[in-house]
Structures are given as C-alpha cells and as structure tokens.
Write a structure and sequence with these properties.
- By secondary structure, the chain is an alpha/beta fold.
- The mean pLDDT is 96.
Length: 331
C-alpha cells in the first residue's frame, strides 16, 4: 500500500462531509457519468473505490483493480457492485445500512397521507379557483384503524410499522419469512405466514424488502390481483421487486385504488413511460432516503469504512465477511 492511498469516487458522495474526510488522508479521483472504459482505466490506479448509481462496478472493472482492497456503496443497496467478482479478487465490499430507517419510513407515511388527505388535489383545485364546499362529496379518509401490510420487516419496515401503529393507531400486518413473531410484536404488529392473507386484508401494502433473486419480480399480476380494489400499493425499496408492466396494467384497469413509487425498473424513467399518464400513481425520484441528515450520515459512514480498511481495520458493515482474512493479508 502506498503512503497516501488513492480513492476513486464514482459519482460524488451524497454530502461533502464524506469527501472532505477522505481528502484528509487520501488522494481522490472523482468521476461523473463515466463510461466503463474510463472506469476501468481509473480503477487500475486506485486502492479503494466508492460507487453510487448510476455508475456500476462490473466484473471487468473490478478485475482491473489489482490494488483495490475496499469498495463502498453509497447506501444500503449493493446492486451497483459485482460482489462475486470482488470476493474473487479478495476485495472487501461494504454498505451503509441504518441511515434509511427514519427518512424512508417518513417518506412512506407521507405517501400514505397523500392518498388519505389528497393534498395535491386540494392545492390544484384552489389554484384553479375552486376546491371549497366539498363537505358532502369529499372522499378523504382516516388512517386511524386502517390496516397496513408490510412486506419485509427489517430496519425500515419495522420503523414504518412502529410509526403506523403508535402514531396513527393503524393495524399492522407483516410478512417476512426471516423474522420471528416477537420481532413484529415489538412494533405492535402481527406476523402473517401467508402473503395472500396480508394482501387481501390490507388497505395499504408497503414493500420494504431487500432486492434478491427471491424478491425480484415478486410483485406481479398475481400479487396485485390478490389486493383489494380499494387498496393502495407503495414501493420505497427497490424497483426490481415490482414487475412494472403488471403494475401499469393494475392501475389502468383499476385492480387497485392507486400506487406510489419512489423506485423504478429503470432510473430515470423514460419521458414517454406509461407511468406518466397514470393519475392514480404518485411518483418520487428515488429520494425517500435522501434527507439532509441521512445524506451526511451516509457519506461519513462510507468514508469512515474506506479509511478503516486502508488502515488495516475490519469495517462494521462488510457485505462479504468470509474473505476478510484474505483482504487483511493484502494490506
């Protein structure tokens, strides 16, 4: 390892605090919107890499990083990194979990409140000179005593459950094969072992699962058909969990009352996407976890873990912990 390591940053960090922390102990090479060839060229000169979407570290790029010992994601997700190739190259991969718990759960509640209270509609009607006198025809509704079904009850899902149950006195159902009854009871929820039972009973279905081969495309036509016609679907997790074509069909044909998406199959979405024409869909551009506070926390976490590994210390959020001894031997 050279005296002053070189850190490649693929897309700037979410907050300058992280880059400032790195710059104090390493030389930085910052690339924005780089081609794969340019990434490969830069990786060959790096000791560590930070990567943020839309950039990706393919196996070919990782293999070029003969001196790279650590790759960090920008957040919790690792889909921008070929982890198998990194492990084969004895490179530690770290992510930065935890920072999304508060902002994504609040974002989810905001979307639910929009469906219930129709703020956008009210604002548009007033600006157009109307909106008042709706007493006999208002379709707004309470969240209190409604049922929310949470698919994936990890850090974020459990916080959504807690906020819904404590803050709005909603009934919480949770589907997650990897947690126990006590985990759900701790946030005032009820664990269900059959996903269809959750879908048929919920006023809101909110997805907070990891994107894995098991969950990829799990929200398909059957999933959406199993929901109630007056229910709302929300996804603030990963776009790949939803078969977007099936959701478009469900909204066009009113299988469900509406949907809200913070994540998509492809980002940004094409300007001519059928999603844009759906008036029963709310969209936000993958910003659910990007509050000012979370951006700073994420950037400092990524920078700190990079510096830990470069100093020979084991980082707290290793994605591939089985290869740490091999990484340590390279330092």
């Amino acid at each position: 390892m050279r005296n002053r390591p070189r850190v490649l940053i693929l897309e700037s960090m979410y907050h300058p605090a992280g880059q400032e922390l790195l710059a104090g102990k390493a030389d930085l090479d910052i690339l924005e919107n780089a081609t794969e060839d340019r990434i490969i060229e830069a990786v060959a000169e790096a000791d560590a890499v930070f990567v943020r979407y839309p950039s990706k570290l393919t196996a070919k790029a990782i293999e070029a990083g003969k001196n790279v010992v650590i790759i960090s994601t920008s957040g919790r997700g690792t889909d921008a990194i070929d982890i198998g190739a990194a492990s084969a190259g004895e490179i530690a991969v770290v992510n930065n979990p935890g920072a999304g718990r508060v902002p994504v759960s609040e974002h989810t509640l905001g979307l639910m409140l929009e469906f219930a209270k129709q703020f956008r509609r009210s604002d548009a009607e007033i600006r157009a000179g109307g909106g008042f006198g709706q007493g006999p025809v208002s379709t707004r509704f309470h969240l209190e005593e409604r049922t929310v079904g949470i698919v994936g009850c990890g850090q974020i899902g459990s916080e959504v459950a807690r906020k819904c149950s404590v803050g709005f006195r909603m009934k919480v159902l949770a589907y997650d094969p990897y947690i126990g009854d006590d985990d759900v009871k701790a946030v005032n929820g009820e664990r269900v072992s059959n996903l269809e039972d959750l879908l048929s009973a919920s006023d809101f279905v909110s997805v907070h699962a990891e994107l894995t081969e098991e969950t990829r495309g799990m929200v398909d036509r059957d999933f959406l058909r199993a929901m109630r016609r007056d229910a709302y679907f929300l996804n603030t997790a990963r776009g790949g969990i939803v078969e977007q074509g099936a959701l478009i069909e469900a909204l066009q044909e009113n299988w469900i009352a509406g949907a809200a998406l913070d994540v998509f199959e492809a980002e940004p979405i094409p300007v001519d996407s059928p999603l844009v024409a759906l008036d029963n869909l709310i969209m936000s551009p993958h910003v659910g976890g990007l509050t000012i506070e979370a951006r700073e926390e994420l950037s400092i976490s990524a920078a700190s873990q990079i510096l830990q590994v470069l100093a020979g210390d084991k980082p707290p959020h290793l994605v591939n912990p089985d290869i740490w001894d091999k990484v340590a031997a390279r330092l």
